[in-house]
């Protein structure tokens, strides 16, 4: 059950209709003009469940070249316990606070931080139209201070990640056969269409090592 206020229709507009004033701005904290403002299309307001909300959000992100990360979640009370969570807050991938980052080596969020103020809040509440508890988007700041485009969106680590077990198995076979990283990279580009980098391939090889060693132990 969904409301008619879906992002789908608004998201069909070309990127130029909601792109930044400076179309040449690159995805770099040093190149974005201070007054850059990019307003993304609105997101659907009502959802029957968190699963439906998540599915709609995935589609919305792909259509609008935005990437949201969950920042906080509040568990539901006994009144609407079936939903699991009562409230969730999401921020854009460029909105992480630099000062709040740890001192570890995983600096992905830090490197992408522009201090973007985009935020999306959703809460379980009674829907007037259906008189049932549903997930409602109660707050959505959509003005980005950086460019939105598909090339940048596809380059985010989470969008480059390979999760298909069949593809990973074939990569493992290529490694066993002595396939070089560049050959594996070419194969991944041809089969997945993702913007996988050579560094991603090297990381993948390292992650698959325990699997190969475990397989060899079983055979022995």
Low-confidence sequence ranges: 1-31, 99-110
Strand order of the largest sheet: 2-6-5-4-3
Elements, N to C (H/E): HEEHEEHEEEHHHHH
| Overall residue-averaged pLDDT value | 78
Q: Helix fraction?
A: 25-40%
Organism: Phytophthora nicotianae (Potato buckeye rot agent)
Biased composition (Polar residues): 1-17
Protein name: FAR1 domain-containing protein
Region (Disordered): 1-39
Structure overview:
Residues 1-39 are annotated as: Disordered. Residues 1-17 have a biased composition (Polar residues). It comes from Phytophthora nicotianae. This is FAR1 domain-containing protein. The chain has 220 residues and is of the alpha+beta class. Helix content is 36%, strand content 19%. It is built from eight helices and seven strands, in the order αββαββαβββααααα. The protein has helices at residues 7-11, 50-64, 108-111, 150-155, 157-160, 165-176, 181-192, 198-219, and strands spanning 38-39, 46-47, 68-75, 85-92, 119-127, 132-141, 143-144. Mean pLDDT is 78; it is low at 1-31 and 99-110.
């Amino acid at each position: 059950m969904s409301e008619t206020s879906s992002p789908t229709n608004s998201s069909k507009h070309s990127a130029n209709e909601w792109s930044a004033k400076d179309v040449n701005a690159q995805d770099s904290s040093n190149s974005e003009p201070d007054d850059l403002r990019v307003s993304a299309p609105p997101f659907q307001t009502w959802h029957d469940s968190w699963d439906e909300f998540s599915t709609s959000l995935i589609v919305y992100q792909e259509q609008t070249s935005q990437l949201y990360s969950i920042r906080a979640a509040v568990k539901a009370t006994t009144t609407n316990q079936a939903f699991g969570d009562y409230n969730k807050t999401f921020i854009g991938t460029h909105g992480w606070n630099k000062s709040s980052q740890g001192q570890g080596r995983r600096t992905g969020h830090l490197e992408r931080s522009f201090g973007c103020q985009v935020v999306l809040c959703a809460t379980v509440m009674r829907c007037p139209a259906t008189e049932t508890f549903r997930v409602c988007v109660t707050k959505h700041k959509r003005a980005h201070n950086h460019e939105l485009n598909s090339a940048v969106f596809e380059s985010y680590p989470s969008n480059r990640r390979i999760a298909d077990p069949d593809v990973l198995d074939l990569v493992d076979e290529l490694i066993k056969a002595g396939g070089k990283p560049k050959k594996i990279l070419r194969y991944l580009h041809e089969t997945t269409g993702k913007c996988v980098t050579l560094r991603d391939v090297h990381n993948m090889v390292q992650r698959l090592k325990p699997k190969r060693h475990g397989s060899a132990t079983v055979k022995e």
